[in-house]
Structure formats: C-alpha cells, structure tokens
Specification:
Largest sheet: 4 strands, mixed
Number of domains: 2
Strand content: 15-25%
Shape: globular
Distance between the termini: 18 Å
Low-confidence stretches: none
Number of strands: 13
Oligomer: single chain
Strand order of the largest sheet: 8-9-13-12
Structural class: alpha/beta
Radius of gyration: 22 Å
Mean pLDDT: 89
Helix content: 40-55%
Amino acid sequence: MKEFSGYDEIFDPMSGFGQLMSFCSRTGISSYGIEYNPPQYFWQRLCHPAHTNDFITMIKEVIGIRQKWPEATTRAVVSNDFFHPESKKLLGSLLETLSDVELACGFPERDTPDYALALILPFVARLSCSTIGDNSTHTKQGGICVYNLWQEDFFQYLQIVHHFLLNIQENTKCDRHSIILGDARNFPFPKHRFRAMLTSPPYPNHRDFSSIFSIENTFLQWLEETNQCEKMTDIKSIIGSNFVKGKVRRQPRSKAALSFFAKVGELRKSSRAKYDDEKYYLPYLSHYFVDLEDAYVNVSCALDTPSKSYIVVVNNTHRGLVVPVSDVIMEIWQDLGFQAEIHTQNELFHLGTKNPRAKGVRARHIQYIIRINR
C-alpha cells in the first residue's frame, strides 16, 4: 500500500469482502469497489463506515423490541433443503421486523438496498438445514435445524455486529467509498477515472464464491422468487463459477492458457481422468480464463494515463501442472498496451487443497503481485 502514497482514490473491480475499503477507511483514502456476489456485497454494505451510525441505531432498536421477535413452533426440524418452511416463516417475519425498524428510524434515502437485508443475511445460516462438507468452504444442503435458543443466538449476533461497528466508527478517517453490485465484465465504469488500482481475481478452485455462500444465495433466491426483493445476480455466471453443464465452451485467446490446455491434453490419463477433464475441469478453466479476459478488457477502460495498478494472484495446479493464472493476466494486460511484470512472489502451501498432507506441486502454490503501469 505504500506504493499508493499520494493517491486520493483506489479502484477494485473485484472487491470481495471489502478489505480494500476497510484499509482505505483507516488510512484516509477513498475507494471504489465492484462486487458481483451478493453476500459479499451486502457484507461490505454492513461494514461501510458511512453507514455505521445507522446500523448501530437500528441494532439498538431491534434489541429494544426483542419481545416482538418471531417464535418457532417446534424445537427442531429435518429437511433435504437448506430452508424448511418453519425457517422461511421465521426469517420472513424477522426480515419484516427489521424492515419496520429501518422505516421507523427514518434513515435518509440512499442508492443502496435496504439495511434490513444487509443485517439479516450473515445470520440466515443459523436457521438453515445444512451440514459441513469435506472442507471449510463446502456446505452440504440438508440436515437438522434446531430452533431452541435461536433468539439468544440472534441477540449475541447483534451484540457482536454492534461491537464490530463501533470499532469501525472509532478507526475511520475516510467514509467516501463507493461499493456497487455489478459485474466487472460488463459494468459501465467511468472512463479514465482511476489512477490507482489494487485487486485480486477469484482463486481458480473447485469451490467458487457463489457455492461457498450457497446458504445465503439460496435465501436471496427465495426472496426473489417470492417478490420480497429484486433480482440481483445470476450466481451461475459468476467469474470462476463451477456450473459448466449445458454451457457452450468458450476458448480463451491467451497463448499461455492455450499452451496449458495443450500440455494437459498430452498427459497420460485414465479413462476416468479423461472424462473428468473433458466434462468439467477444462471447460471450467476455459470459462475462467475467458471471464478474466472479458473483465480486464472492460476494466482497462476505467484506468487513466498514467496509472499504477497491482493484481494479487495465486496459481493453482491441475494434474501436476501449474494453472498459469499469473501468466495469463500479464499477457492480457500486455496485449492491452500496458506494462505488466511480476513485482513480488511468495510460496504458499496447502492453499485450496483438501488434504493437509498433500505433497509436492499439489501443496506448493505461488502468490504473485503483478505490477501494471501505463
């Protein structure tokens, strides 16, 4: 971040959880972020320093009417879906209560979705029927939901968020941050606005961010289907999406990507491995690289001349070969007329691997910080 000394605004077209906004808030710099995955976007809304006073007020009011919170009619349920009808009833009623409090607080209208949705979304998994999968990023649909003491859990959740917001409030030096729900591949960015960019693409793994937040996205989908909120995002089209069935395979233009696919094709593989590559892995990686190409072509139009940018990227592996994400990204930007080079690199181990005992290339990953100048 020392590289951005003297800049008054930093751009992140794939802003994720909003770490850049958080850092810029504490250091007195404005930020401009775009995020396509709704749960991450709403988390940034909840953490936005310009909204902390509103959320603190709202939380106090919600706690003050605890006796009006909905009550479950049973102690527990079992379901094959994420949300049993009892859970939907409780969450729908709770969302309505939060919306009533928001309205009663008389917050000034802003170009943001309602506060109630941002406040309830991190809690909805508590009332879901789900089980932990084979790693921390995988949640399986279906299971048991215990409603006993859920109100106490919600109270504790609100207390934690309240403390978190107070910390943001105390450490904020700048609250001028734009966070927009949008797709970096086609969002109409302001032309030539930004002189500084710090970003990172989704990690190319078998668990994309829409799947990691499958509970929250399922809840939002239910709200959309019941007309309780507007349609926001097609999560199956998110960058790095592992939904490949039925999609027409797109071919990347990058020479580094095409060379990688050629090497994979030359490997000796079992019939099962060949099938998996043909039906899933190679289409997935093809779409991933094409999505990066489309996104960075669009993002490049938002950068001014001169501009200084850094992209943090980690390469994954497939069949013992390095997935050349860093090489593809540098090639994309060089083809767009920018200077792109490796600024620093560090070895990381076990990032994205399900087996902590993995050895060799499967456990060894390289994190690159790519510097892009124009």
